[in-house]
């Protein structure tokens, strides 16, 4: 529990660097149309959507990303997170409920090579908006898992939830135990590749109201942590998670955690 708390605090208060703008990327030029389905470059407007990330990651397997909007920004209903140079560039696809607006959402990802990390948001009218940073990191997708396999099996699917008030908003933090194996890591005992297995489906609600859902790939960090501002409605927080191996976890938390 202590390690989880340290991780949550690190996510909640990183030194967000804004001196690392996106750089020209031939990889992104290919991805934009073939993978994301965009024929034109989405506009960039930091008030509508901004992405904070470190210039150089302390740990390429745990790179904090913060997505924010100005208070009067148009609502986003979804977002695709892309890490240009990762083996599977689409890190995650999100759907957002109205309770998360304006967006203030933090996650941790793996970055495999110096890369643009970009968010392509979808507004209610179908319009797209983009934000991003260039992050110097390497090897994140093949970095060894932090625990041995026995410890992984014993704790997989455990969840923690907490909420707090900050700057007039309610901040929720959800922590889930899962190795999020990328398929590129090796067992440190057998030296064999560990098959890919990660949480690919996640849904978080308060009562019947959607807070957010996620369809993930290999780039979400081990033991994922999600921190987000939201408008509480007084109902319990419910979490539904599924991984590639078919395991399913459901949990419900009091609002206060």
UniProtKB/TrEMBL annotation:
<dbReference type="InterPro" id="IPR014880">
    <property type="entry name" value="SoxZ_dom"/>
</dbReference>
<dbReference type="InterPro" id="IPR030831">
    <property type="entry name" value="Fuse-rel_SoxYZ"/>
</dbReference>
<protein>
    <submittedName>
        <fullName>Quinoprotein dehydrogenase-associated SoxYZ-like carrier</fullName>
    </submittedName>
</protein>
<dbReference type="InterPro" id="IPR032711">
    <property type="entry name" value="SoxY"/>
</dbReference>
<feature type="signal peptide">
    <location>
        <begin position="1"/>
        <end position="17"/>
    </location>
</feature>
<feature type="domain" description="Ig-like SoxY">
    <location>
        <begin position="42"/>
        <end position="141"/>
    </location>
</feature>
<keyword id="KW-0732">Signal</keyword>
<dbReference type="Pfam" id="PF13501">
    <property type="entry name" value="SoxY"/>
</dbReference>
<dbReference type="Pfam" id="PF08770">
    <property type="entry name" value="SoxZ"/>
</dbReference>
<feature type="domain" description="Sulphur oxidation protein SoxZ">
    <location>
        <begin position="163"/>
        <end position="252"/>
    </location>
</feature>
């Amino acid at each position: 529990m202590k390690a989880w708390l340290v991780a949550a605090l690190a996510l909640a208060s990183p030194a967000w660097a804004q001196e690392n703008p996106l750089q020209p990327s031939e990889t992104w030029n290919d991805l934009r149309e073939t993978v994301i389905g965009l024929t034109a470059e989405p506009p960039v407007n930091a008030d509508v959507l901004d992405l904070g990330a470190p210039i150089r990651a302390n740990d390429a397997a745990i790179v904090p990303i913060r997505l924010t909007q100005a208070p009067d920004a148009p609502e986003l209903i979804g977002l695709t997170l892309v890490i240009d140079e990762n083996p599977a560039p689409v890190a995650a696809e999100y759907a957002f409920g109205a309770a998360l607006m304006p967006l203030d959402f933090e996650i941790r990802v793996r970055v495999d090579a110096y890369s643009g990390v970009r968010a392509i948001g979808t507004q209610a009218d179908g319009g797209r908006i983009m934000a991003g940073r260039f992050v110097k990191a390497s090897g994140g997708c093949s970095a060894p898992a932090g625990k041995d396999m026995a410890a992984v099996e014993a704790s997989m699917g455990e969840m923690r939830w907490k909420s707090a008030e900050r700057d007039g908003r309610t901040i929720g933090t959800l922590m889930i135990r899962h190795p999020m194996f990328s398929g590129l890591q090796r067992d440190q005992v057998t030296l064999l590749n560990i098959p890919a297995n990660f949480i690919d489906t996640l849904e978080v609600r308060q009562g019947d109201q959607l807070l957010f859902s996620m369809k993930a790939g290999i780039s979400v960090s081990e033991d994922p942590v999600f921190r987000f501002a939201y408008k509480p409605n007084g109902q319990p927080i419910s979490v539904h998670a599924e991984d590639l191996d078919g395991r399913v976890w459901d949990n419900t938390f009091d609002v206060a955690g």
